[in-house]
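Rotation project, supervised by the postdoc (A.L.). Task for the rotation student: set up a whole-complex structure prediction and record inputs and outputs verbatim in this book. Inputs entered:
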Amino acid sequence: MSLMHAILGFLRREPQTGYSLKNDQFDKSVGYFWPADQTQIYKTLDKLVESELATCEVEIQSDRPNRKIYSISKAGKLELERWLSEPSDPPPYREPLLVKLFFSEYVKTEDMLEVLANARLHYQAHLDELTSIEIAPIGKCNSREELGARLTLEMGLQSKRAAIAWVDQAMEALESFEPKNKKDKKHK
Amino acid sequence: MSLMHAILGFLRREPQTGYSLKNDQFDKSVGYFWPADQTQIYKTLDKLVESELATCEVEIQSDRPNRKIYSISKAGKLELERWLSEPSDPPPYREPLLVKLFFSEYVKTEDMLEVLANARLHYQAHLDELTSIEIAPIGKCNSREELGARLTLEMGLQSKRAAIAWVDQAMEALESFEPKNKKDKKHK
DNA sequence: GAGAGCATGTAAGAGGTTACATGATTCC
DNA sequence: GGAATCATGTAACCTCTTACATGCTCTC
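Outputs recorded:
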């Protein structure tokens, strides 16, 4: 369960609340490769306390809602280390865009081109977002923490760029295939 | 729901059973980008009949178990076409390997290298499998069906190759980072 | 005699999403 | 006056996975 272990990882860095896990941590880093829902985070924190991998203290606040501060336990640290060093199978790969393309014979080429163009926009937006993240390049990282972050970012950058290149190739192939079967049409 | 629409796509090609969908279709093509569980296929077929996107006839066999042959309905064809030409957001990207790398400061470098090496094996195996699939190259496809299959395969090949290149880069970075903080250790 | 192929299913559970609820304070 | 921030939660639902069950035929 990656979500559980990602939370343990953040708690290992510092004790914090479900709210800060969601807004300061996941949404700004790990969320790029393991998006986490608020509801899901709260449920998982309950489970962590129940299984004694984390502890919880309530902080009473007067001007704001009370908050529950979670800390990792000794058992939690061990479990985190165990999971981190355990090799694991990659999860099933699921991509609706490829399903659409696979059956694209059943729709007009123009429609499929639009679907691809839309996907490209998403990939590009995601790439732009990643590009705006500032982390030292691989050779200049000063800590293992920084290097880990850099390498995950690198994966994101490279795979988005590859995805965009592939979309372009696919669009070109679809466009230039058309004349063979249909009478020549002008695009755009 | 991609599974539902992928099934509609196959039924559009020809009427068939849950069994053949699983063994002849999904496991040999679409499964590479949308793996489908047997249980899930049967449940989805029920739903398709219920919502009148497909019909079902039972064929009685004496020497083998009876089989249920599903066919796409008119409404099913329309629904398939609607879905295929509808642009859609890419699904959330989730990769446990990146989570592990992100928090890799908490384990020994050697352990993380092993985790990466294991992932590399999986990627390579997947790539080998894809490489053994025979489909004409982009310029030589004779039908839209073939081109669609080729383009999805191309995505698989390119993304696996990119993943392997990235793993190599990550392993190298981890290995050459170590000397800065720890005393020099020999690897392997 | 064992195992693969054919063919369909049930039951339970894990993980994630969506919609909704509460309520004070601070900022524009 | 309205929106954002802080902070936690419930209920219902969807998709997918795992484990298990049945039973005949054909091949090695």
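Student's summary: Residues 144-181 of chain A form the longest helix (38 residues).
Supervisor addendum: The beta strands of chain A are 54-59, 67-72.
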